[in-house]
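Morning run. Coffee first, then this:
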Amino acid sequence: MDDAARRAVQESAELTRTLMAAPEQMDALYEILGTVSGQGIADAGSLTLCAGDRPFTVASTDDDVTVADELQYELGEGPCLDAISDDTYYVVPDVATDRRWPRWGPQAAQLGVGSIVSVRLFTCADVSGSLNLYSLGPRSFDEHDLTTAYVIAARVAIVLVAIHRDSALIDALEARALIAEAQGTMMERYGVDADRAFVLLSQLSQDNGLPLRKLAAELLRTSDRTRVAVDAD
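And here it is:
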């Protein structure tokens, strides 16, 4: 696995952990998706998110829909991927005969997919995605359904932004706690005040080329907390 693929896997895992740490928001996503079939908008729906270059289905109303999504990821083609990359929407009246995705379309049809609408989700700078509405029959969607899809996508985006915001706040609080604990360690070790301890941590961060949070965590992980050489004067 090359570096780019490794980063994509790591970003995907981090995004998954972020989502799983927000059960209430995940429930909200499933509730929104439930309106797709509950109100007769489509037979099923799914959400594709992409962290880095790695797409995955974060929620769906049907296992067959998840398979249809994953088939797109495997083949590297399909309306949900193009909706994300092209920053737009795609309406596919008949997946079996649409020539834009010659490999995915026929295989999706074999899964029972007749037509699909995919619209781009506008979420956060580092996360992209699409809302995908599936129908078992061909030519099932019209302009009204596309408008409805955008309304649903907007609701999904609000939830995703909230998850991202809460995650960023938690990260910031955790970072502050780590740095404060590391400051206390430096104060005790060198007999300096809080301001000087922070200067020492910043110096170590620059000298070692590490973000301050990572430096603080590394300092606290050392067994005796005395192995980092700095000049406290």
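DSSP finds eight helices and five strands in the chain. Good start to the day.
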